[in-house]
Design goal:
Helix content is about 55%, strand content about 10%. The chain is an alpha/beta fold. The protein folds into 6 domains: about 80 residues, Arc Repressor Mutant, subunit A (Orthogonal Bundle); about 90 residues, Winged helix-like DNA-binding domain superfamily/Winged helix DNA-binding domain (Arc Repressor Mutant, subunit A), CATH 1.10.10; about 100 residues, Orthogonal Bundle (PTS-regulatory domain, PRD); about 110 residues, Orthogonal Bundle (PTS-regulatory domain, PRD); about 90 residues, Rossmann fold (3-Layer(aba) Sandwich), CATH 3.40.50.2300; about 170 residues, Mannitol-specific EII, Chain A (3-Layer(aba) Sandwich). A 5-stranded mixed sheet has the order 11-14-15-13-12, sandwiched between helices. Strands 8-7-9-10 form a 4-stranded parallel sheet. α21 links the parallel β7 and β8. α16 crosses α19 and α24 crosses α25. The relative contact order is 0.06.
Amino acid sequence: MDQRSTLLLTLLLFADRFLTIEEIAVKMQVSRRTVYYDLQKVNHWLQEHHLEPVEHVRSSGLYLPDRTRQHVPRLIQQIDTRQYYYSMEERRAWLAISLLTEERPLYLHDLMERIEVSRGTTFKELNRLRNELADFRLTLTFDRKQGYLIEGSESDMRRAVVHYFSQLLSRDGWHHLVAQIQMYLHSDRGGSGEQQPRTAPAFTEEQLCMVYQLIDQCEKELGIRLTDEMVHQLAYRLILFAKRIGLGKSITMDRDEVAVLKTTPEFKAAKNISAKLAELFSITYPDDEICYIAVNLLGAKVNKLSLSTSPDQDVSLLRNVVCRMIDDFQRYACVFFRDRAALEESLLIHLKPAFYRIKYGLDIQNPLTDAIKEKYAEIFEVTRKVVPHLEKAAGRQAVDAEVAYIAMHFGGWLKREGASVATRKKALIVCGNGISTSRILQAQLEQLLSSVDIVGAVSLRDYESGCYDVDFIVSTAPIPKKGIPVFVVSTILTDTEKETLLNQVNRLDNRQERGNNPRVKAVLEVIRRHARIANEAALLEELSQVLHIRTRPEHNLRKPNLHELLTREMIQCGRADDWREAIRLAARPLLQKGMIDRSYVEAMIRNVEEMGPYIVIGPKVAIPHARPEQGVHQLGMSLLRLEQNVSFSDEEKHQAALIIVVATVDDALHLKALSQLSAMIANHLEEILTAPSPDDILRWIQHYSISNVGNQQRRQTTIKGMGWQNEIFK
């Protein structure tokens, strides 16, 4: 059994219905042919253990027989770790961790044994690792006496340790973690001639349990609740850091930072942890190492956080950052968050650990980064524009993974405030990856399941220890059912998963009516004539699953391009005596088309009067807007190019000659066009301000309307080019 076949078996184990080959191919991100190939391996393995193979019903898909289902969980845990084949990313991660934690010299043949590939493949992976380590300011060298070595500062070494171990533990599917823990629990590394484990650290299961207990005590002491993934991350980090200290490699921190860290509750908790670890591993922890544990506690992802335990100066700083980020997000995205106070508190809880991760270079892994950048590109770009407030406070640039988590947070709130949720049924989300991940999933579920009330999101540990009164559970990982239906999905739902989930929920609604399905009744009648039925209720249930009629969800409304909104009749050139007249003149095409009411125009003017010139997003550019319910009937934009500037305040920076009115029916439909508008303004503002006619402006608009899925190079230019928008609000 290798990585893919183990994943396939896991999917089938926790499925309570037939899985089609297409569904499995999408979940595993492989071809149909690969699924069939892995299925052969799974069946061969099952037969070796005297179990029935996977059932394959041509019209329905794959299903694991009941007897096999009962025995597989125990057998999976007994899989020989030497049968587990690493991906390329996992190979490089294990090479890095081995080189950073091993006590004895490591040569090519040692590393070949560690990742169990050929000499040539190991050499290629080392070269790739050398290039990756350069990003951490580390150098991979070779010495005949000392073998392969990683050289650089200890702080950069620790950053690499955190990065590569995070990479391993952030993989989708619990089987990765199970296999790795199994390998870690071997501690015999002596020269006994026995088969040596493939991993670097050496510790016992009892030591690992002790570390988990220390983390549990730390959570209670600090009043926090770490995400499930973070508990594992932190446990292994503490052990790997202890390993480095045992090698005589201690970290040195800035004196001023040490003084500040010693005032935090996290330092006190770190001191308690280090005292137990010192006894456990027979090592000594200097103050700098205790502070480093405190940094990792401060940067840990949490589901629950008591802000009252945090230093007043940090909370005050981050509250200011949160307010500025939300202000700018509303400006750039032309939206208003109705429940802003709740958003501020929620975002503050997420940003506190993110602030310390960015400040101390503790890079985080986010397996959803690429998906967020592709599927929610506009929200990611707007988030990237507001993140500089956090980066300035932390003194370091945020990696895309952090930006993606914050974008998920904003995106979840946008969807949540635009959703109309009924209360016919109640559902719970179980997610081990933290608040932001569960929020983006909740937003999708609220949009997809209009008749379901999502009562909340909990971690796996909270679910296992709690009792919940809900109709069904949606989980990002397989979990025990506890008598409640569980539907396992990806964090970002595919079209296939949406369709499947809709049908599963519909079947819950129609459970009493299943026997009335004429197709089911006909098949059941045929079976009665030719066979004796031992359990008619169970048979009826399975027939209903196989023969149910699928309903496809409505696809999301298409986000229009800029040229579809700013048509020729929506573009004007003219004069205005003041900013109020400019807004009224700019909105005239939308009024004439019936896209907005006059009340929307007055609301835009009133917003400026009450909140100041926030609509001036850059030199000479203003984007007035108000809430959809204040008089919007149809999505639209209109553009006015003035011959002379109008002033929105007494300050010169609040003068504008380009007025773009945005009228949107929800909080997301206009974002694609707005992104294209931003790119156009960032790169060709002067050409637009001096264009001889509306037709010349229209040509620029058509040029920047991107019909295909993202011109990535232009988007990057947009992000860089919009730097002046950040400057104006400093």
